[in-house]
Amino acid sequence: MTEPHPLPPLLRRLPIPPLAPQAASLALTAFLRRIARRNPAILARLGPHERARFLIDVTDGPLLLVMEPGRRRITAHPRAATPAHDAAIRGRLAPFLSMLHGIEDGDALFFQGDLQISGDTAAVLALRNALDCAELDLTEELAAIPGQPLSRWLRRASGLAERRSGYALSRQEMLP
Amino acid sequence: MMELVCPAGTPAALRAAVDAGAHTVYCGFADETNARNFPGLNFSREELAEGVAYAGARGAKVLVAINTFPRAGDQALWHRAVADARQAGAHAVILADLGLIAHAAETHPDLRLHLSVQAAAANPDAINFYAETFGIRRVVLPRVLSVEEITAINRQIDIETEVFVFGGLCVMAEGRCSLSSYATGLSPNMNGVCSPASHVAYSEVAGNNEARLGGFLIHRTPKGAPLPYPTLCKGCFTSPSGGGQAQTGHIFEDPVSLDATELIPKLQAAGVRALKIEGRQRSRAYVAQVVRAFRAAVEAAEVGEPMPAGLLSKLTEGQAATTGAYAKTWR
Asked: Which of A33, A102, B43, B307 maximizes the CB count within 10 A of its CB?
């Protein structure tokens, strides 16, 4: 796989269209709710930490995200003001995706400085462990949305984009 | 072939370990009965039974670590854990506490018992006592012994020995550390957590990143540099020397991990039956990579081929490794 480059710096410099955070919030919340329905064990593993507000700062991305698992909600915010949160995870998009898809170890990314955390460490640890156990595959989660006609195209496009960009867009299959 | 005993903090990690070639997987319940009682980690009773079935269908075994020390008046939690591990079909339970071992031996005579590293049995007399009194079948040796000492122990005992070959190290005599308790009030041996995440705080102060445990500053690094998890024994401290000049360094222990890959042939010759990988708190990606590498290593050892080296440095704490006490070069 190609070594992933950071997202283009232009992404962070472009002005955010007025309704973009709201639109991103709606789409991401709908996606989170779908994932929570299909993977109820994630919330069970989070336990009391489902009430925490997680700031997800994809440092090469244009917006800050706050995920509230207990309220099944993700909100997107302009970078100008950091929204209230209990715990924060910061890093480029590539290590986030590698960790989520089981390709790289979260602790190793942390030891190397590719991911940084602050705030409620126990909540971050619970989230990391819950997501790791869920073996999520974001491409499959999107492709499996009922009624959308682009599943096959999405899987093929994701595979192609993964090979070209080096970004982990789907779950690593464990080979026996 | 030497048996490879691999960690699993979640059912996904258990499957990853089995698929990557683990002969045996060890795990624990999601409570204070095991020494990796971290948020979001460990197994429910149902998950354990499913894990045992998954491993069994692929020729692998599951061990259950019940290796903390029961609190006085509150032993029922630990007794229930032993009974439930047996009920789920675990191959063996890994125990440390003398009273719990006696309970397990009396109540579940058919259950295979392993002696945890937490019991700190580091000489033949201690090991033989456990074996003769309670029928312990395997001892996990403390990480304070050299290969020569392990060889000597194996000549004088009749049960199997298991040794750690990879993962985090502990500076204290196993199971007797009070540093975490001092800083947080929570004990690794009683509550199953060393440096619990609930007491960890990362912050940015004046251009530096700081990691604190229970309010104590454990690490300070320039912004952007890697910041280790604030385990007290691996902290970087500043202290005045005798002359009054400040010294900064790792007072107790360097933040390095054990990697005894190169010593596997010697451990095999020393009569060690099983090699253990530390890391139930790590992800399924870690488990898969480490297990795959060590499966290749034990297969190479079996046919007398050289050991692969340096494959796993990226996964170790501080990205540095040591052979620990196995080769006591300081002697």
From this structure: A102
